[in-house]
């Protein structure tokens, strides 16, 4: 391994490389570990993937940093910039749009006191609009971290956000 790759690997948060390599036998190739590796690195990096994490994963999986960066930018589940501790995704696709998604967005922004994509001053939340989350029959809806909140009203959305720890 080159000195550059070794340095990139060493810059990964502690324990990340070991946690990823523990999965090695479950995947046919090192490259196939890319998605779980990015999840692990993102969790260990405070919910987003700085360039150092991308370079570290690339070094670990023997890929180019550009290849890993391409995966990161392709999937919405990876974040290239800091996000709040709780990530709120409001579906604004057709069914949700027709049933009030913009009012849900506005209510959340007002409750949090930030615009879309910004992080609250305490680092607790950030919110973005999102493409269809596959729950069109319960529109309008949003996803908070891993949980769906469906059949929302602006009041209900505000309450969900207010109750987040
Ligand atoms: S349109 Fe909102 S979940 Fe499908």
Explain this structure to me?
With 165 residues, the protein is an alpha+beta fold. It is built from eight helices and four strands. A four-stranded mixed β-sheet has the order 2-1-3-4, covered by helices on one side. The longest helix is centred in the middle third of the chain and has 12 residues. FE2/S2 (inorganic) cluster binds next to helix 6.
Low-confidence stretches: none
The CATH superfamily of the largest domain turns out to be: Glutaredoxin
SSE order = HHHHHEHHEEEH
Tell how many strands the DSSP assignment holds. 4
Shape: elongated
In helices, the fraction of residues equals: 40-55%
SS-derived structural category: alpha+beta
Number of domains: 2
Please sum up the structure shown.
The protein is of the alpha+beta class and 165 residues long. It contains 8 helices and 4 strands, in the order αααααβααβββα. The protein binds FE2/S2 (inorganic) cluster.
How are the SSEs ordered, and which strands pair?
Elements: H1 3-10, H2 16-21, H3 34-44, H4 51-61, H5 65-74, E1 86-91, H6 94-98, H7 101-112, E2 125-130, E3 142-144, E4 147-149, H8 154-162
Parallel strand pairs: 1-2
Antiparallel strand pairs: 1-3, 3-4
